[in-house]
Structure prediction request, 508 residues.
Amino acid sequence: MTGQAGAPAVAVRGVRFAYPDGRVALDGVDLEVGPGERVAVLGPNGAGKSTLVLHLNGIFEAQRGEVIVGGLPVVKRNLAEVRRRVGIVFQDPDDQLFMPTVHDDVAFGPAQAGLREADLAGRVAGALAAVGMTDRRDAAPHHLSFGQRRRVAIATVLATEPNVLVLDEPTANLDPAARRELTEVLASLDVTLLVVTHDLPYALETCGRAVVLDGGRIVADGSTGEVLADRDLLAAHRLYLPVGFDPARV
Amino acid sequence: MTQGHAHGDGLDSLYVAGDSPVHRVAPEVKIAATVAYVFAVVATPREALWAFAADAALLACVVGLAGLPAALVARRLRIEIPFLLFAAFMPFTGAGPRVDIFGVSLSEPGLWAAWNIVAKGTLGVAASIVLAATTPVADLLRGLGRLHVPRVVTAIAGFMVRYLGIVAGEARRMHVARQSRGYDPRWLWQARGMAASTGTLFVRSYERGERVYLAMVARGYEGTMPALEGRRASVSQWWLAVLPLTAWTFAVAAWLAR
Prediction:
């Protein structure tokens, strides 16, 4: 493959995207993420966060500008490789887990990539171990708790060994214990990480860098601590820290 | 967290966990044996009462071997009641020679026709009950796959199993939301509210279908589902073939004895 050493893991340049009804979701987004970096994409609902995510693996094609993943432009002929490199964990694990058992679901991605037998089994075992769900491999997804389903959803993506892991609102609907477990899982992974969220404390816990997306543009970019300390900036983009939360004291 | 939780919902609730010799048989063997057994029962001439008794005894042995409580099988047999009601009319409405039973004049061919439905239906349903109670749904899908049922069909069945509980959960939450706002339609003239909710449920499910498809594409889906893993049945697992083979022997013997 044509991945270049030293190329950013993800480069989004001047991307613009409007939905068929004319609503502009992305209005010139520029974002560069280095290999191994952990970046939180913050923004209110409707800021274009999810639309941006769907550009990273070519489900949406940029109408203007370009998206480059590890040196490989996201265009039709590269889609298979781009989708192997960029793993997306969607918001609702029930959308992500569609096979009859946990094992089959985790095996889906690598099986699509052509893995069989021992290679496939190894991938599945590794991914399930990474999220601590090895003992539930034969369970049906609907017999798992919500937090467990979230972790299996991450395993389904880890099994494809992505270079970039994108999580869309990973803490939505998680109870505090499940949220803690998720943090531990994410901390243990060795990948470039993009966490799309409006859960600001969670962004601070998991990501060193944060960008704020609003109105289809990146309006702030800096260390997560700095971005969260700027209350005026946050308020201007409908982002609020929980009462009593001081990012400087975490 | 109640969202999407559907414990014991839908089709998997039919499975009765266990580790009996029947549970351990590979799913494709159980499916093939069940289908072949049902065909044997259907092919048996209705007058051969002894053959049906023998078929029932055979199945009872399998139920015993599987460790399934007879009461459970009996309870699940209730599903065929609507069909039996239909059969119950036949002796009254049938033509041909009539017999008097307890002073009621009944049609003789009608009685035989009703018996035919009751006997064959009950044995067929009972065999399916044993299959469903000893095989988890995921294994059934695997078994169908290994019997070369087209992957599109097993995939559709798989999605149905996976999402039935979720759609039912969504319907339940909408029902609760309706009741919470003081609307609990019961009568025909209140059908509008019900119809609107059904439409919403359809749209929501359709949108979920789109999101599921996106998630599939994001993991490299290009139009074919992967084969589900699983071990091939060993020759020794085919011992269950005794069930349909014996039933077929009875059926053939009954035809020859006519």
Remarks:
- The first strand of chain B starts at residue 98 and ends at 101.
- The longest helix of chain B spans residues 151-180.
